[in-house]
Amino acid sequence: MEIGWMHNPRQRQVLVFFVLLSMYGASAELGPYSVVEETERGSFVANVGKDLGLGLTEMSTRGARIISQWNKEHLQLKVQTGDLLINDKLDREKLCGPSEPCILHFQVLMEKPLEIFQAELRVKDINDHSPVFTEREMILKIPENSPIGIAFPLSNALDLDVGSNNVQNYKISPNSHFRVLTRNRSDGRKYPELVLDKELDWEEEPEISLTLTALDGGSPPRYGTAQVRIEVVDSNDNAPEFEQSLYKVQILEDTPVGSWIITVSAKDLDAGNHGKISYTFFHASEDIRKTFEINPLSGEVHLRSHLDFEAIQSYIINIQATDGGGLSEECTLLVKVIDINDNPPEVTMSSITKIIPENASETLVALFSVRDQDTGENGRVVCSIQDYLPFFLKRTFKNFFTLVAEKALDREERAEYNITITVTDMGTPRLKTEHNITVLVSDVNDNAPAFTQTSYTLSVRENNSPALHIGSVRATDRDAGANAQVTYSLLPPLDPHVPLASLVSINPDNGHLFALRSLDYEALRAFEFRVGAADRGSPALSSQALVRVLVADDNDNAPFVLYPLQNASAPCTELVPRAAEAGYLVTKVVAVDGDSGQNAWLSYQLLKATEPGLFGVWAHNGEVRTARLLSERDAAKHRLVVLVKDNGEPPLSASVTLHVLLVDGFSQPYLPAPEAEAADAAPAAALTVYLVVALASVSSLFLFSVLVFVAVRLCRRGGAASVGRCSVPEGPFPGHLLDVSGTGTLSQSYQYEVCLTGGSGSNEFKFLKPILPNLPPQCPGKEIEENRTFYNSFGFNIQ
């Protein structure tokens, strides 16, 4: 399953194979630098800036620093001067142990641009340790018959220093039987051998005590001592013999403590006490004695402490078998430690950028190194991150890697990324290490404010109060912080004739729109303007939307009568022949309303009449018609008050007064005197007086009527035209009075011809007959019924 994951082409991963020890053999690009151990903190090592050929300011601007895989920072880089200084005292023995030379590897990192230089520091040894014997007292049993010149190896002294500061020579206290020789082992260490110069005599001196001194090569030399006690024993002519001179064994590094490793065996041909063999470690280092133990009787070797392949890969153990007579033999045990996958990969972060701008591409997010202390497949590692993230890993130098953004990020799409760097080795079982990095995407002003609508339509009723809130616009910005703070403003109007600054204002913070003054529907029914929204980024981005304000009509205009005009110097008098039939068009009241809609729907009704039932008003177009046939008993003068009312809420109205004169014919023009209007306005008592006078003079009136009748008949025969006199308005009507939906205009069924005559008196006009002729009356018996049917069909309003 994991092998398939390794070969998945969509899985972005960086395959790294490195062996830990190979790093120490890598050639350095800087140095090598050297320093003596125990050098004081702050001591000068070298000038890295000069070695790199960089100026003083360039070291600082490029972000130079020291990175290493040490647990403690031993070096310090002064970027101002380029000097490499000691950060703390270096103990060569703790850093490298017996290894020589002692080399510490480190890297010089340049961040801008990214560049890594490999360097090494060699720590020189000083003579700060004295030789120490692992055995303070050594006991040798030497047969008395031992030949002169026989050598007896002794335990060596250990010195933590290296080179010439290690043990160089051994000395023995003055005596008459022995001298000491200094020998070299295969690993370079020196050990002492005790050489017999004079025969021993057990009976003369059964025990000899000597002092062994180990000297190092320091200046001045340091030394350590141990006691050597020699027991002279009786003759023993057979030494022990091992079955093998070299034993080899392999052991896993996770072998439990106490486990049996191997059993070594030796034989001695002597009998009795001279044939009894005991086993010991000979010339064993402190590490060997801490790690292994041997049974002195059986020769079984057991594990005493845990093994660590990464620390020591093999042990060479010298085992000595000694019989009861003091003779001994040695063999070598080679223990090879087999590595197991017990170390997970290690991730060391050298540089992390936690905040990156959204418009930057291929931005360096992190610089890190990986290592695995195991070897072989156990030390081969794979680095990977999540597949769905816009980042990739790139190997830069040996075991160093960079985490880079592969493209420009979009904060509005995603503002935070949690990146998990997974380092997995190829051992069995596989071990892995995860390192989490949280990357925040900083905002860049790359989004303009966007209105919720491209256009807004607002409605406000006319006669509003100033500073009235009429609506709002709203824009949002996907950016963050100051880049998302939106400010609203009014843009210059599309129509330069619209005084936008005096009509509306906008709150720059929330987009609320206010009417600055009271609006008049009759003057301004609608207007448009643009609203801008800008953010506070740098540079600022903006957008705009169109706002249309519709002014709703209010019923604030009463009907205005165009005809008859009421403020004329002389009242308008309509002449009606007494022979007119029912439905005869007397006149038409023409009115308009400045409002619109139902506020301008006008209706007409007859409010007052001198003789109710004689005249009627058409409710929809204001035509005044006779409601029945006229008779001689009807009064000659009539005063009609017509009410014009709109359909608003509440309704507004206007009234107009009409004067109608009934005449027998149009042969004698009739022009009412100026005082006639005053007479019409006199009280009803005056009319009564006239009637009384008429009754008293009935004879004269009858004669006058006969004469008038004859005169009218004569005029008709002569084709004389009927002429009336009335006052008509001069000049244009007010501009704000409009014809609304035809209401208040003359019916298209009637056309009138108006003529104006000059003169010192009132203006004159003449009504001609309608284009549609009046039909002759039917038989007298049906006249009243037909007339009633006629004005009912026209919707007369009869008083």
UniProtKB/TrEMBL annotation:
Family matches, as Gene3D superfamilies: Cadherins (2.60.40.60)
InterPro entries from the UniProt entry: Cadherin-like_dom, Cadherin-like_sf, Cadherin_C, Cadherin_CS, Cadherin_N, Protocadherin/Cadherin-CA
Signal sequence, renumbered to the chain: 1-28
GO cellular component, one term: plasma membrane
Species: Physeter macrocephalus
GO terms classed as biological process: homophilic cell adhesion via plasma membrane adhesion molecules
Membrane topology: Single-pass membrane protein
The gene coding this protein: LOC102992079
Transmembrane feature ranges: 689-712
Alphabetized GO MF terms: calcium ion binding
Any matching Pfam family: Cadherin_2
Keyword annotations of the record: Calcium, Cell adhesion, Glycoprotein, Membrane, Repeat, Signal, Transmembrane, Transmembrane helix
Major subcellular location class: membrane
Name the UniProt record assigns to this protein: Protocadherin beta-16 isoform X3
Compartment(s) of residence: Membrane
Positions of the Cadherin domain: 134-242, 243-347, 348-451, 452-561, 576-676
Cross-referenced PROSITE patterns: CADHERIN_1, CADHERIN_2
